[in-house]
Sequence to fold (371 residues):
Amino acid sequence: MSDARAAAGPRMATKAAPDRRVGGEANEEAARGEPAVGLVVTGIGTVGADGFDFRTALGRHGYKYLPAASQYFLAAAKGALAQAGPDALEAVGPEERGAAVGTNSAALALHHAMDRTVTATGAGDLSPVTAPYFSINLFGSRLATEHDLKGFNLTFTSPRVAGLEALQNGQRAIATGRARWLLAGATEEALPEGEPGADTSEAGAVALVLEPEAAARSRGAAALGRVGVRAFFLPPRVAASAAGAERAAVLLLDALDALGHRPDQPLAVTAVLDGSPVGEAVAAALAEQVLEGQVLAEQALAEQAPGGRTAVGKPERVPAGAGALEPVARVAAALGAPAGHAHAVVTAAAEGNIAVCLVTPSGAGAEASSR
Fold:
């Protein structure tokens, strides 16, 4: 939000709404406008680790030695492309196709195995097939090779928000002209036993196909909706202070405003949070500030349409696992929900990373477009 807009007052009704643009602590990324690119989601693929067999999901040959996280994402991408349609790739050239994937734990089990080999018998005994995957950036390389994605291939690893950052930065790259078509999502492999967070480990993948709305329409593909993401940072020491919830509310409200949400639009909220000071500050902000504004909006809508169903209630809080997969899975679920209202998926990490994804399913109002 620009200073001029901030001076005009907040655009969402809140209870004692705090001043916007709080010092250097508040990351201005949440409110910086970017050009809309008109991307819509045309395909969704989800894969779980339970019962997963790469031979069934991908084929019997050529995938055996890929790390599990790569297998999961390849299978999720296959499902997303199938839903997007047989001509989803052919609609644009290879140089106009981009990919972005987020992960926190895709390589950890492999790194542990490599460490054991090096310390036990030496680096010469590392498998030449799996050794290249010491680099986290290679986990999406097979995807780019198989589908001829030559525009860009990005990997993000920020705690918990990596998958949403993949959506945000993939769309940003398209807005700058680096490509016209995007496959983005998240993938995780289960953490080794004894690793911190192993008891809440995530394993599986979610992939989304995004393309220009006009292009999707021209080939007869169904638009499932739009997604827009803003990621920002709240220092843990600030989150733990008495002003933590207020600071979090400023960032959340600015992010929603920048994404195009308005107080007269119903909004459901899903928050994927842990019990850290940052997670608790975000939870309090949603309950005390963001939700209050939405309740006022719902009351106004109910007065305009007596007896109509409202779309907003208490934010759904989902316990966060050890990874970046659950927030993207919630985005995919919101896109596929039968109710046609906007949905915000919010997540935060103990380290201070926070991301907001505004999901606008088809029919929920085109004005809240992806940016």
About this structure: Strands lie at 39-48, 97-102, 152-156, 181-188, 204-212, 225-233, 267-273, 316-319, 342-348, 353-361. The chain has eleven helices and ten strands. Confidence is low (pLDDT under 50) at residues 1-36, 295-311, 365-371. Residues 276 and 350 are 5 Å apart (CA to CA).
